[in-house]
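> forwarded from #structure-qc
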């Protein structure tokens, strides 16, 4: 099997179809493109999501906080806490553990998130540090009322750009090679991309201003995220390649390694689906908050998923192993 998360078809066939779904308190269950589960607790709903960091050990504390909290934000609410499972190889030092925890605590503090507990152990089952985190948020049940369903003509908004997380990780993990090829200034700019990982602010803005669906862009990159939104919406999608922002640094890094920036993991980017009226509101609020955002496509009737590149219409396929794994072999 390929390195990375399972393909959508594998998830559907081997996992989702086998789930029995007995509890009526569970309002939102696993599915392609769903970042969170939602559980009914009366007037309040509990929002839950979980994610590991496995692609790199660099900046692992920073990464695990944001990828987990971003999933909660994709449900339109701010996360309140995370629980952590930390697996350490035997050669790990106490200083390593302290550094990881210092990073976790610092990043959690930036977005007002508590560490709620978890489990930490040394094991020879891993050959580098692996952390899995579960994020928790809450929202009023009344917010589910009147939520509009995805429809043909709805617009897709992207915040910040494509390939953010992958660019930052590569610039750290392949720093010396890239300094030789692209120069120290480009590498330092790329490393700073890991300061853009949180999408909590845009998630809350979307949730308060009519977003129908949101999806933070992780493994599989932008094209993977767009494909999953299309599946979840049960509609086709048309993406305009010339509208998709890719930074010059990301272009340089991807060109050096021969990888596709639109298939590179991109925590720090949020995909927001809204009708035209609410899309204008969301774009306005994002601008006031100082968050760059662009309309990059729309939903359409049918099942076609295409990216328009000049006069070409190319099929968007289900996401495969992320481009990052081609670099960090």
């Amino acid at each position: 099997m390929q390195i990375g998360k399972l393909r959508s078809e594998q998830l559907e066939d081997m996992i989702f179809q086998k789930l029995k779904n007995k509890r009526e308190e569970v309002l939102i269950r696993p599915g392609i493109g769903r970042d969170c589960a939602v559980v009914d607790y009366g007037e309040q709903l509990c929002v839950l999501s979980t994610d590991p960091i496995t692609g790199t050990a660099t900046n692992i504390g920073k990464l695990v906080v944001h990828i987990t909290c971003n999933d909660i934000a994709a449900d339109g609410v701010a996360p309140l806490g995370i629980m952590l499972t930390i697996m350490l190889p035997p050669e790990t030092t106490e200083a390593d553990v302290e550094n990881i925890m210092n990073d976790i605590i610092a990043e959690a503090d930036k977005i007002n998130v508590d560490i709620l507990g978890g489990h930490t152990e040394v094991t020879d089952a891993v050959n580098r540090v692996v952390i899995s985190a579960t994020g928790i948020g809450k929202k009023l049940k009344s917010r589910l009322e009147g939520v509009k369903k995805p429809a043909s003509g709805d617009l897709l908004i992207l915040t910040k750009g494509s390939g953010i997380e992958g660019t930052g990780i590569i610039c750290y993990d392949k720093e010396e090679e890239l300094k030789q090829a692209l120069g120290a200034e480009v590498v330092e700019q790329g490393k700073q991309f890991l300061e853009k990982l949180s999408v909590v602010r845009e998630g809350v803005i979307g949730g308060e201003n009519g977003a129908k669906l949101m999806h933070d862009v992780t493994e599989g990159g932008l094209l993977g995220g767009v494909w999953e939104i299309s599946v979840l919406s049960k509609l086709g999608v048309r993406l305009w390649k010339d509208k998709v922002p890719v930074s010059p640094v990301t272009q340089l890094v991807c060109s050096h390694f021969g990888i596709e920036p639109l298939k590179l993991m991109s925590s720090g980017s949020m995909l927001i689906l809204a009708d035209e009226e609410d899309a204008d509101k969301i774009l306005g609020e994002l601008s006031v908050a100082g968050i760059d955002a662009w309309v990059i496509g729309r939903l359409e009737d049918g099942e076609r998923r295409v990216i328009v590149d000049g006069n070409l219409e190319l099929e968007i396929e289900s996401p495969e192993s992320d481009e990052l794994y081609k670099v960090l072999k």
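QC bot note: Residues 94-110 form the longest helix (17 residues). The longest strand covers residues 130-140.
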